[in-house]
Amino acid sequence: MAETTSMHPEAAEAQPTVGKQLKQQTATVREDLRELGRLTKEASQEKLQQAKQTASEYLERGRDKASAVEDSVVSYVREKPIKSVLLAAGAGALLGFLLSRR
Question: Are 51 and 59 in contact (CB under 8 A)?
């Protein structure tokens, strides 16, 4: 019974080696996690920058289209002022009728 409770000399020598290996592996995992965190941060910052760039492009396109529509409306009103006033009055009357029914 005494043999089962005491450690063999080989087991006693292996114990510090296993402990050192565990510490080394833990340090390696810790460094890997730090590197993964850094890479994740870089990737998310890159995606955010791309999203900002895409949003800026869409905003610029929207402004260009709005400006083109404005120019078109101004041109139409200058070419046909009476028709434009009548269309605006008709649209206003229709809108007033629809809103007064509430």
Answer: no
Q: Which two structure tokens, joined as six digits, stand for 4? A: 């089962």
Hey, what are 72's tokens?
């078109």
CB 44 within 8 A of CB 38: no
If you average pLDDT over residues 80-93, what whole number do you get? 94
pLDDT digits (tens, 9 = 90+) for 28-74: 999 999 999 999 999 999 999 999 999 999 999 999 999 999 999 99
Q: Which two tokens stand for residue 41?
A: 């941060």
- CA–CA gap between residue 16 and residue 23 (Å, rounded): 10
* Residue position matching structure tokens 């890997």: 32
Helix axes 81-100, 9-79, angle to 10 degrees: 120
Sign of CA dihedral 63, 67, 70, 76: negative
